[in-house]
Design goal:
Oligomer: single chain
Largest sheet: 2 strands, antiparallel
Keywords: Actin-binding, ATP-binding, Motor protein, Myosin, Nucleotide-binding
InterPro entries: Kinesin_motor_dom_sf, Myosin_head_motor_dom-like, P-loop_NTPase
Radius of gyration: 20 Å
Family: Belongs to the TRAFAC class myosin-kinesin ATPase superfamily. Myosin family.
Domain Myosin motor: 1-184
Order of helices and strands: HHHHHHEEEEH
CATH architecture of the largest domain: 3-Layer(aba) Sandwich
CATH topology of the largest domain: Kinesin
Shape: elongated
Strand content: 5-15%
Number of domains: 2
Strand order of the largest sheet: 1-2
Structural class: alpha+beta
Number of helices: 7
CATH superfamily of the largest domain: Kinesin motor domain
Number of strands: 4
CATH class of the largest domain: Alpha Beta
Distance between the termini: 44 Å
Pfam families: Myosin_head
Length: 184
């Protein structure tokens, strides 16, 4: 299949705006520069032409920009599928409550707020290829982090937040004043 190597610039660039989406929409792979929109367009085109499920695998190290790349691909699908203004589907799919981020994010040596979840996102399309729904499954990648953290890394944010809240009346009975598995 198609492989795209992308580098996280750690800042927003003007290469993900609506006019760029429209520039890639309907084009063939190779007509334009390599881009996440080119990969998304190819998957969208093959889904519509062959009426078969398509997959885009976004892989990389901590801080590589996997979540951002997935958001851009979903924004592309929502825009070309006529759903962007109606549903803002990528925001809905990726919206996580602060508590979910706290449970699955931790400080690593590369990223203070690194998601330690693997994510499987399934987007449903109707017969006109408009997005009709989506589902995201998450998989906790590092259960061992609960009991051990490498030097300069931390446990999941939730443990620090709970300990910081230990003196609040609603938490007093939980015995959170000391937790053995926290690094500084």
């Amino acid at each position: 299949g198609i492989v795209l190597v992308a580098i996280n610039p750690y800042e927003e660039l003007p290469i993900y705006e609506q006019d760029v989406i429209y520039a890639y929409s309907g084009r063939n792979m190779g007509d334009m520069d390599p881009h996440i929109f080119a990969v998304a367009q190819e998957a969208y085109k093959q889904m519509a032409r062959d009426e078969k499920n398509q997959s885009i695998i976004v892989s990389g190290e901590s801080g590589a920009g996997k979540t951002v790349s997935a958001k851009h691909a979903m924004h592309f699908f929502a825009t070309v599928g006529g759903s962007a203004s109606e549903t803002n589907i990528e925001a809905k799919v990726l919206a996580s409550s602060p508590i979910m981020e706290a449970i699955g994010n931790a400080k690593t040596t590369r990223n203070y707020n690194s998601s330690r979840f693997g994510k499987y996102i399934e987007i449903g399309f109707d017969k006109r290829y408009h997005i009709i729904g989506a589902n995201m499954r998450t998989y906790l990648l590092e259960k061992s982090r609960v009991a051990f953290q490498a030097e300069d890394e931390r446990n999941y944010h939730i443990f620090y937040q709970l300990c910081a809240s230990a003196t609040l009346s609603e938490f007093k009975d939980l015995g959170l004043s000391k937790y053995f598995y926290l690094s500084a």
